[in-house]
Amino acid sequence: MTTTTFYFKSLRNETLKLKHTFALWLTAICALLIPLLFFIVYIVKWEKLIPAEGVNPWNKFANEQIANSLPALVPLFIVLITSLIIQVEHKATAIKHLFALPIPKWSVYFGKLSIVIATVFVTYTMYYGLILLNGNVLGSIRPQLNFSEFSPEYVFHIKILFRSFVSVLGILAIQFWLSFRFKNFIIPLGVGMVLVIVGLIAARAPESIYFPYSYSMISMNPLDEKTSDLNLFWWFPTVSWYSLGYFVVFAIAGFFDIKRMNVK
Amino acid sequence: MMSQLIVKTEKLNFSYSKSKKDIDSLDLEVPKGSIYGFLGPNGSGKTTTIRLLLGLLNKNSGNVKVFEKPFADHRIDTLSKIGALIENPSLYNHLSAKQNLRIASTYRANINKDRIDEVLETVNLLHVKNKKVKTFSLGMKQRLGLAIALLSKPELLILDEPTNGLDPKGIIEMRELIKKLNKEGITIFISSHLLSEIEKTCTHVGIIREGKMLFQDTVKALTASQSDRLQIELETDDKYRTYDQLIKMGFETKKIAHEEHLLMVSVKEKSQIPVLVDSLRKNNIGIYQVTIKNNLEELFLNLTEN
């Protein structure tokens, strides 16, 4: 078998393993939660939320859900979802089985890592899809909110969502390695939670540019002003590059650690 | 002609921690076509050895050759000819038996679609193939684990305590299945802490204690090595008088601690037993029970219990 067949076989299996798992529900719940909350608030308190004449209601509606809510929640979600997806293996004591199969160990590791990334990506997509859907539904239920008069700034939203997505890849690789390494899910979960909280607090300090758990916050408001303007051609800020750097380093170092690990 | 060795380790060493050697200079030799029983008390290093054979643990020193090739250089090629069931079967509880097998077959190359039903039939689980594994009993899970190990028609089957969690009927079925698979040409390596299990199924045996190989040969050789002595357990109404009498007659006799009426006597052949009984009866010693002990059982205990 070739490299690609090993990889795609692994992907196929990882997808099948996710069936009927709590990890799958968690992604749906997480994607649903905030848009649902905003939807209810807009339905109930619509009178206070009517925009001024000529103001695009989408900006406030989408920005609050993207820039204000996401940065703190996504890292927590990453910690939970990576741990849950790998727990599927630990619960089945399957690492010993997988590593005794005639397949390269990297196909297991990177196949699973890819699935975690895909899951996070799907959650982002569902999240944004729901924001758009909710806005349109609101527009037809409460025409006064003016949602149907204006259209959302798709490009701006997609840019900032993608930036947020890239900014969490670093911690995703770290959490993935920890979850793979330790059977006991309390370890990656505990370590992750503490670091996420530290990251949220530290995000205001300029030094936090070196601390990947702050990147989700920073990505919304990049420290270097040159790239903070999303309308600029060059909208991919330093923090995104650093996050990718952490991702590559921890994905590879993590794999080499797992590869030579004694599977007990 | 020396038969080909499917598994061969030379001076294999491994420790989990620096303070203790878990596998100590182990030389393991599994001939092709054999049913090799790997016997040892709990914690003696059986599972550790199996994990070393499969490359799940990194050996400290020594060689592991499987199918006459160094394992480390031919990992994927070697593993494609092995089916293994290590400790508890690795099963995804939230999926059905069939889905579990499908995952295993996707990982492996060239597995025919019908093969899944075939192995389910072999382990007698075809009727529950669409049920989720979480509803399975321990014995059913063990059998499904075996089905997964059989999926790729392996040349070498490694089973770690395969009868764990099985009921007596299941144990007998497992024994039959192992013999049947062996007849089809599969070399089988079984670990167990029960001598009776090994004695009934295996052609070869290796006895391990504290990571060291104590004995390794055919089961026949093991039996033969003990056939010049018979151990008898004797229950009488007066342990001390019996003991004195037997010693007087020149029998090697041992008192068993904490047993009020039991003695162990060693005789050369069965014909000595009536002689012994007659002489005790003449001395008015009441005999309640005379039992010939299983030599191998004794040997195993002697070997493994210091």
Automatic annotation (TrEMBL), chain A:
Biological classification of the source:
Bacteria, Pseudomonadati, Bacteroidota, Flavobacteriia, Flavobacteriales
> What Pfam families does UniProt report for this protein, alphabetically?
ABC2_membrane_4 (PF12730)
Q: Give the stretches traversing the membrane.
A: 21-46, 66-88, 109-134, 154-178, 185-205, 232-256
The protein's name: ABC transporter permease
Does the record carry Transmembrane helix as a key word? yes
Keyword Membrane (UniProt): yes
Superkingdom field: Bacteria
Write out the entry's keywords from A to Z: Membrane, Transmembrane, Transmembrane helix
